[in-house]
Design a protein that fits this description.
By secondary structure, the protein is an alpha/beta fold. The chain is built from 17 helices and 11 strands. Keywords: ATP-binding, Ligase, Membrane, Mitochondrion, Mitochondrion outer membrane, Nucleotide-binding, Transmembrane, Transmembrane helix.
Length: 504
């Protein structure tokens, strides 16, 4: 080995090659080491530039990317507008100019109405097509304090329906886009921007007071069902005035838009799902909503199907920006969210200023629900007696509100057998087990009846069903067509899914 090294080093060419190889290795190692050190420092600097989330920070982490990006660098015009707005909010703005700008509202609402409106504090949750138009109308009408809550950013596709966004706003948070643009219109308005996702966990803060005063009104312009239900239930339970915008997607007829109680809203999937979830929480009416009665039809827009390649990527629920947010494209005619948003703002302005107005009454059918509950009680007592149990004093774990929920939200006011909507009642679908009476508490007998056990029929159909199936030996297949059996199966499965949302 030593002799080979001696010969090699004695050769000039070999020496040059060896020197080059060693030098290359040394230089390469130095470069890689330098790059590694520089990368380490750059990562450290980047991490150091990210502010810590303190106790005062209420934003909710959305996914691995976080919320919308921060406010972009303002232009000269934006800086001038922001400076004017800052002065105006401190009172450095001529009151006569404000009254001149609000002159048409002033003569319409009277001095007292406008004064009340100007002192109001309104929260707008959801700052897309509906929320942006509502916020713009409120600011232009004189509302002095507006809190904007939305986690999302302006996109190119937002521009067909957003009230104030421009190309320059694409990529910026929606809440700051609205503030920046509306400050150029009403610089005296106080905008409280919350670039956050609304959630039940943070509702106390997000819907909290300003200067010790609670919101005069809350506007729900959310298009996600979970957040929407959480917001409306919170407002209802805490007695905060609220109005909700239902779905503007796939709608095109402005003559079919109404403001009414949520119990009267129809022909809208978002409204139906919201109403059902709220009713499961014990909220059946008392919330005004903007909704459309327009029905789908041939040639009309509908929710686009999810491409097959998206299903191949994994669980569909993981494709959305947030859990439970829709991942399919909802066709939206740009004019319709504007109409919904302006209708919402119109209602809020009239309510706060005390201007006379009316909207569709709720469907009060409490007497009918009481009658159906009494009929169900009687049916359970007859079944108990037929099985050899003492029926007197038997209790059923069903309330009139439960009856209303089943009739309206599950069976849509129609018999599962014939589709008729008169002389309705609720009846067990399956024959109960022999021990369907709970006697564990002395002196008390309860029927082990669940909502998923019940179906809606006419009284005549229920009488036949009770006689031949619940008390007799007939099978369901002997009495009903396959389509009815499948419909009942689907209703039971559907209610089992919704049962997890019911209040305990």
């Amino acid at each position: 080995m030593s002799s080979w090294i001696s010969k090699t080093t004695a050769n000039n060419n070999a020496q040059l090659i060896t020197t080059a190889v060693v030098s290359g290795v040394v230089v390469g190692s130095a470069i890689l080491g330098f790059q590694k050190v520089r990368r380490t420092y750059r990562v450290a600097d980047l991490k150091a530039s990210i502010p810590d989330i303190g106790e005062e920070h209420h934003a909710t982490r959305l996914n691995q990317y976080g919320a919308a990006s921060d406010i972009p660098a303002p232009s000269k015009e934006d800086k001038a507008s922001a400076s004017l707005a800052a002065k105006a909010r401190k009172g450095d703005y001529d009151e006569d100019l404000i009254l001149e700008q609000l002159a048409r509202n002033r003569v319409f609402l009277t001095d007292g109405g406008l004064e009340t409106l100007r002192a109001a504090f309104v929260v707008v949750v959801g700052c897309g097509g509906v929320g942006s138009h509502a916020a713009a109308a409120l600011a232009r009408s004189g509302v002095s304090t507006i809190r904007l809550i939305d986690f999302d950013q302006v996109t190119l596709s937002s521009l067909n329906r957003h009230a104030v966004a421009t190309l320059a706003d694409v990529g910026s948070p929606k809440v700051h886009c609205i503030r920046k643009r509306l400050e150029q219109v009403t610089p005296w308005t106080h905008f409280d921007c919350r670039n956050e996702l609304f959630s039940e966990a943070t509702a106390d803060v997000q819907l909290g007071p300003v200067d010790g005063l609670p919101p005069d009104f809350v506007i729900d312009a959310i298009d996600n069902i979970d957040s929407k239900v959480a917001l409306l239930n919170y407002c209802y339970q805490n007695k905060l005035p609220v109005i909700s915008s239902m779905g503007a997607g796939c709608k095109s007829d402005p003559t079919k838009i109404f403001i009414g109680d949520i119990s009267a809203s129809t022909d809208d999937p978002l409204s139906k799902a919201t109403r059902r979830r709220l009713r499961a929480l014990g909220v059946k009416d008392g919330i005004p909503v903007v909704f459309s009665t327009e029905k789908p039809g041939p040639g009309k827009a509908s929710l686009l199907p999810l491409p097959e390649e998206e299903f191949q990527k994994g669980q569909v629920g993981e494709l959305g920006v947030l859990p439970d947010f829709r991942v399919r494209i909802l066709p939206v005619l740009g004019t319709m969210p504007a109409i919904f948003g302006l209708a919402v703002a119109n209602h809020v302005i009239l309510e706060i200023s005390g201007y006379p107005h009316e909207y569709l009454p709720s469907k009060s059918r409490d007497k009918m629900y009481d009658g159906i509950l009494g009929s169900l009680q009687g049916a359970e007592e007859r079944l108990a007696k037929d099985r050899g149990h003492e029926s007197q004093g038997l209790r059923i774990p069903i309330t009139a509100d439960d009856v209303g929920y089943l009739i309206e939200e599950v069976f849509h006011g129609r018999s599962i057998v014939s589709g008729l909507s008169t002389r309705l009642c609720l009846i067990r679908w399956f024959k109960p087990p022999r021990d369907f009476i709970d006697k564990r508490t002395p002196g008390q007998r309860n029927s082990l009846l669940r909502l998923t056990d019940l179906v809606c029929m006419t009284k005549e159909e229920a009488t036949k069903h009770e006689k031949k199936i619940l008390k007799g030996d007939k099978r369901h297949e002997d009495l009903y067509e396959k389509s009815i059996l499948e419909a009942v199966k689907n209703k039971i499965r559907e209610e089992e899914i919704f049962a997890r949302f019911r209040s305990l």
